[in-house]
Amino acid sequence: MIRDPRKAAVVAIGDELLEGRYADTNSGLIARRLADLGIEVVEFRVLGDDRARLAATFWELCEKYPMVVATGGLGPTLDDVTREAAADAAGVKLVRDEGAANELREWFARRKRDFPASNLRQAEFPDGAQVMRNQNGTAPGFRVWIGGGVLAVLPGPPREAVDMLERELVPWLSATCGHGECFARANFYLVGLAESTFADRAGDWMARGANPRMGVTAHQGTLRVSLRARAATQAGAEALVAARAAEFRERFARELFSETEPQLAFALGRELVHLGVTITTAESCTGGMVAELLTEVPGISAVFREGFVTYSNDAKRARLDVGAELLERHGAVSREVAAAMAAGAARATGARIAIAVSGVAGPDGGTAEKPVGLVCFGLSVDGVVTSHEGRFPPVDRHTVRLFAAHAALELVWRALPH
């Protein structure tokens, strides 16, 4: 039985990670999954395939934390040294597991491939370790006690790591560590709110010792807010989350767009389909990005009429009937022209909602009056046209366009009845 298993560390292993050739996608997923079990990951490490350093790290972390999860270094070649390092840290020898060896032979036989002798290394584990089967590859994982904690080692390929996490490690953790506090969680997704402003409005809800504990992360103009409550019983934990969630919905009613869908485009697209509200887009600087985000939503064809990419002034005149005089007087990047683009798109398609975008994405083309990052929006809702302006950080062209596309989706979201 693990002692008070509420803290953990995660280790990603591989020279390729340190060299930047591949991104570590396993650690974050493992941390989120452990959090669902009430186990808090308080440390990440990324290490190369160095046997001595790995062994020292495994020992250090297992002395600090009851649970350590590592991924990678379980291949058949001599540079895969995770199993040796785990044995060194545990002070035991590697031993062959004949059951795992037979499964490896069968894996190759089913594929009508010769069985390389080097693959037998993958059937060796620290003496006393518990083997975790791999149903998607040739590298079994294992759990082994080191000092005061347990080290669980998963394969590096994400598909194999995730499957073994769900099939082998999570059930074991649930059975082994299921006699402590109970936890309940809730998520909220907000738009149109800076992280700092959210923190001011959330106040002491975000205090480190609060129960429920609240966390927030920002991504592409949206905020993900998580609540996690702990109590002696599951009912108690769920009651704490439910009470804070009710307060949260009231305090952030204007910004809350979903409690289940992290992507604004998907939440908006599904709402448009649900309401039967037709939409069209007219884009200049975003080059069709708004339409692309919306058309990723399954079923959106029921309401998405058409997308215009009118990059040049000639296209704005020809496709959206934007007046030449208007373009000459105000310029393509202006609230007036954006409003005319939206009105023209609505007339051309008969859509109830039309959203238009025109801006300076950079890196060139900005002026003192119209700097890089200035984006103008037009919105037509049942024939009523409004215009809006946004100023985004001129970090790079792609980011400005992405910010603009999400801002356009936000304008449409706010225009819908909720």
Instruction: Name the structural class.
Output: alpha/beta
Count of distinct structural domains? 3
Number of helices: 14
Summarize the main sheet: 6 strands, mixed
Text of the CATH class of the largest domain: Alpha Beta
Roughly what fraction of the amino acids lie in strands? 25-35%
Shape: elongated
Number of strands: 17
Determine the CATH superfamily of the largest domain: MoaB/Mog-like domain
- Say what the CATH topology of the largest domain is: Molybdenum Cofactor Biosythetic Enzyme, Chain A
CATH architecture of the largest domain: 3-Layer(aba) Sandwich
Mean pLDDT figure: 94
> What ranges have pLDDT less than 50 throughout 5 or more consecutive residues?
none
Q: Trace the largest sheet across and list its strands.
A: 2-1-3-8-7-6
Radius of gyration: 27 Å
Query: Can you give the helix content as a percent range?
Result: 25-40%
